[in-house]
């Protein structure tokens, strides 16, 4: 049986021995990276620099929320706007694995620059077990390269520290609760962020669309759960599909984009069942998306596939 308190004590003392100089961590504001930042900051204090990289793919209002959270956590942090760099690198790229690798590599380059300035020797990552299991360990096939595993360039100078390497998601949440981190109940969000929720090229225009649709999905499902209409799914978001279809707006023919809603129940992300969302809630989401985004989107579909055979994210 996993004991979060014991894990924290053992990990903090191990980290204290392991890290002799300065370290850097990129915190996305998600559970994994925030737990890793707090664990390492408990071990080495100001010798850890936490950076938040604005890659241009974060959710609505996320930049401000993360700034607030990091301030409250009292960690030594810096915010870096690298969005232009990420969008430029992804221009014309449509293959999901290539997108993931480019994003992972860009992240590392940004870290390396900050690490050099801070004179850090270590790079801390919030990698957890499903990340490396699914990235292929020589025995299993690579299903997808999770950005904090697949993107590591071979010539990287920093020594990598992964304090939660063997933990599963539910265990990370237990640790977060024990550390009194507010994000402990937040739904998981992938490292490559909204870039992998735009199927095909992740350009600014399409990312803005999926950002809006994700905000509507989150808003409506959280409201429905608060009203007791349903239990909040384990993970829930929108995906922009590279598929246009014919619709009608007033008396006119429309040719618009398609948004897929994805909501799943899971324990650790390794397997998942699609959520049986009440029709009235799906209805509300569909109406809001097609009304509030009517210039671009005229069709909304619901993904009714389990994992396996599908994965949770579409890319
Ligand atoms: P999949 O799509 O592989 O996702 O079924 C399983 C869980 O992992 C999240 N995910 C990621 N998390 N880096 C992460 O830290 C990544 O590159 C990544 N890709 C997927 C996904 O949102 C789901 O919760």
**Radius of gyration from CA coordinates:** 20 Å
Strand order of the largest sheet: 3-2-1-4-5
In DSSP terms, counting alpha (H) and pi (I) runs of 4 or more, how many helices? 10
CATH architecture of the largest domain: 3-Layer(aba) Sandwich
Mean pLDDT reading: 92
Order of helices and strands: HEHEHEHHEHHEHHEEEHE
Q: How large a portion of the residues is in β-strands, by DSSP E? A: 15-25%
Quaternary organization: single chain
Number of domains: 2
The CATH class assignment of the largest domain is Alpha Beta
- Shape field: globular
Counting helices, strands and paired strands, the structural category is: alpha/beta
Low-confidence stretches: none
Q: State the end-to-end distance.
A: 34 Å
Largest sheet: 5 strands, parallel
- Which ligands appear in the coordinates? xanthosine-5'-monophosphate
| CATH topology value of the largest domain | Rossmann fold
Q: Which bin fits the share of residues in helices?
A: 40-55%
């Amino acid at each position: 049986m996993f004991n979060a308190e014991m894990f924290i004590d053992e990990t903090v003392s191990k980290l204290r021995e392991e890290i002799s100089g300065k370290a850097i961590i990129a915190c996305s504001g998600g559970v994994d990276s925030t737990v890793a930042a707090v664990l390492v900051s408990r071990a080495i204090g100001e010798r850890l620099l936490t950076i938040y990289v604005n890659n241009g793919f974060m959710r609505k209002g996320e930049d401000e929320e993360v700034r607030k959270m990091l301030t409250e956590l009292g960690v030594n942090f810096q915010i870096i706007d690298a969005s232009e760099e990420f969008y430029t690198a992804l221009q014309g790229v449509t293959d999901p694995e290539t997108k993931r690798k480019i994003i992972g590599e860009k992240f590392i380059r940004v870290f390396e620059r900050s690490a050099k300035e801070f004179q850090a020797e270590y790079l801390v990552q919030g990698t957890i077990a499903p990340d490396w299991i699914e990235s292929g360990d020589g025995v299993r096939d690579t299903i997808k390269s999770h950005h904090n595993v697949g993107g590591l360039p071979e010539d990287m100078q920093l020594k990598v520290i992964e304090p939660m390497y063997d933990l599963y998601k539910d265990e990370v949440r237990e640790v977060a609760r024990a550390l009194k981190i507010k994000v402990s109940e937040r739904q998981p969000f992938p490292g490559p962020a909204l870039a992998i929720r735009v199927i095909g090229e992740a350009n600014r225009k399409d990312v803005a669309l999926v950002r809006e649709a994700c905000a509507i999905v989150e808003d409506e499902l959280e409201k429905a759960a608060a009203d007791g209409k349903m239990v909040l799914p384990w993970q829930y978001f929108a995906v922009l599909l590279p598929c246009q279809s014919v619709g009608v707006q007033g008396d006119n023919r429309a040719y618009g984009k398609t948004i897929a809603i994805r909501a799943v129940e899971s324990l650790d992300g390794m397997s998942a069942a699609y959520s049986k969302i009440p029709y009235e809630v799906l209805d509300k989401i569909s109406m809001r998306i097609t009304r509030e985004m009517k210039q671009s989107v005229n069709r909304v579909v619901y993904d009714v596939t389990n994992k396996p055979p599908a994965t949770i994210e579409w890319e």
